[in-house]
Amino acid sequence: MLADLVHKYEDMSKTNWRMENLPEQYRARLMKGIVGFRMEIERLEGKLKLSQNQSATDAARVAEALAAGPSPDGHATARAMRRYGIVEDGDDPGDN
Fold this sequence. Notes:
Elements: H1 2-10, H2 24-31, H3 56-68, H4 72-83
Helix pairs in contact: 3-4
């Protein structure tokens, strides 16, 4: 499950980080601290977390990085940050 999760999200990043590249003993130690579980969802409540608790400078940097990255979800998040006034139009190039 962990390998699938890492591949899904790390494949989109520019770092090209791979679990397989970690030394076996180190990876085994890290994995002892991870517990996978499943739970049935009975209700969902949505909240926006768009760096609104950060300074305007930091929020603009976050939006810029998301807009410049390869992820369509990141691009959408950068647009949402503008739409909800977290960053000013022109603070990030996120019209990808």
